[in-house]
User: What shape does this take?
Amino acid sequence: MKIASLMTVALLMAGCATTPVTNRTQFMMVSTDQEMALGATEAKKVVQTSKISTDRVLQERVKRIGQRIAAVSGRSDFSWEFTVIQDDTPNAFCLPGGKVFFYTGILKITENDDQIATVMGHEIAHALARHGAERLSMQTAGNLGAQVLATALNIPAQYQGLYSQAYGITSQVGLILPYSRKFEHEADQIGIYLMWKAGYNPNQALRFWENMARLAKSSPKPPAFLSTHPADEARIREIRAYIAQLPAQR
Assistant: This one.
């Protein structure tokens, strides 16, 4: 009863939010202030533990593209920063609050500014849509749910750890991973809109993801239903649909 009461209080304290562009209602147990503080803390760790690129031209190029997209993001309250990390991994990410990091590995795949804007828009979209906070909220609710169910089913204490582990696996496949794929599709859609709004060519997004798909074929990947990212064919198909839906005027 105590666990159930705690879960009830936690759920009552949870709020709803709405994503930009897609207007999807979200379940949130993390406040914006908490999320911003977490983003600032993690950004410091990234800078301290990473090798920052000394290529000033590359740093300025990424910063210029990032600032153009940030200008149309609607989040003037974000402390926008754009940093290139010397690392051959094809990766980029945006922390809550607008701290964006690009690896030199992803920049070797992008063929022009429009394709950099594709990646920039996608990563900024994750932050704008608060996907990290939403995933944390779902995991928190899921953990509370596991405790409540274990108690309600009178599972012996020595087996509750095993039950919680099994419940976590079920939640991961049944809820967290599908939402991760949903987040990716949503970030694609919001990102396409942002790059278009900032004056970049959204058709280059197709070219970029086609290049990424070819790169992915050279390395083994898990089945799409067990991946946090959507299948390449599905992603490209939906991006093409997003582009077709863009308004006539910016």
